[in-house]
Amino acid sequence: MRELYPSIEPHASGLLEAGDGHSVYWEECGNPDGKPVVFLHGGPGGGCTPSHRRLFDPAKYRILLMDQRGCGRSTPHASAPDADLSANTTWHLVADLELLRTQRGIEKWQVFGGSWGSALALAYAQKHTDRVSELVLRGIFTLRQGELDWFYEGPASNIAPDTWAGFVGGLPESERIPGHLIENYGKVLFDPDPAVHQPAAVAWATWEFSNLTVQPRPDLIEGAQEPLGATAFARIENHYFRHDGWFTPGQLIAGAPRLAGIPTVIVQGRYDVCTPAITAWDLHQALPSAEFILLEDAGHAYDEPSILDALITATDTFANLS
């Protein structure tokens, strides 16, 4: 089993002035003359962590990470009581990536994305195909209505009824209406009163973090309890989900064939509760040239052992492609 590469620190970082009042944090690690790769975090709203730098061989890769609009070290932060997310959409993020690529003087880069990051990677690659050298995708999520309904409107409660009770409990009793939970969470999450929106945000984040792995991970669940981080995470996710990611129905799967010339690896846990394997399967049917890896002992999190092994195997293999 492959493990994360040793800890590294950025050798460059800054704030990208992206327009609309947004400053997007970026950092660069590894070999300045290495193969460019950009890491796209999940959520949306999850932000980057130091361990994400360690998915790539620092001797071979020029590693770029970016905290997407409204989260992590980017400003303004979506946890602010009066946060305005009107200029925070998928297509704003795609434009931010292109701005970062050009400002860093990169011709083409590998695009690595998991969970929401896989959706953003697909959206970016379908719009800027000639700028992508390879794709590494994990825990595939494309914001189709069935995917959203599965995890946020009730069916997943059949697998996790205990943690689902906490998710539903984050709403006032009058708002616990099956089929309208995402919509009704939006009302509470965007209430300007922290006494209203923060407990709801923690309930939203706890539901998701409780279902990332096959075996319980108390450290992940503990991370969902920090009110400001949970608020940005829950608000941004809810905002994107209420707008279907600004995609037409099935857009990312339908557009996948145009990526046939890009070497691609799809890594999926069979027991992924958050983003079930059917979406990864559908993507592979639309993009049969991709290598499809369905892991029999894994859920959703990138650092479950078999997922981590498959991801680092992919990045190591691609490191040697010209």
Automatic annotation (TrEMBL):
The lineage's top-level taxon is: Bacteria
NCBIfam families with a match to the protein in the record: pro_imino_pep_1
Ranges for domain AB hydrolase-1 come to: 35-151
Sorted alphabetically, which PANTHER family does this protein's record hold?
Answer: PROLINE IMINOPEPTIDASE
EC nos: 3.4.11.5
Its encoding gene is what? pip
Q: What is any Pfam family matched here?
A: Abhydrolase_1
Q: Where does it reside?
A: Cytoplasm
Report the InterPro entries cross-referenced here: AB_hydrolase_1, AB_hydrolase_fold, Peptidase_S33, Pro_iminopeptidase
Keyword Hydrolase included in the entry's annotation: yes
Chief place of localization: cytoplasm
What Gene3D superfamilies does this protein's entry cite? alpha/beta hydrolase
Q: MF terms per GO, please? A: aminopeptidase activity
Reaction catalysed by this enzyme:
Release of N-terminal proline from a peptide
Name-wise, this protein is Proline iminopeptidase
Family listed: Belongs to the peptidase S33 family.
Question: Sorted alphabetically, which SUPFAM superfamilies does this protein's record hold?
Answer: alpha/beta-Hydrolases (SSF53474)
Keywords on record: Aminopeptidase, Cytoplasm, Hydrolase, Protease
Q: What class of enzyme is it?
A: hydrolase
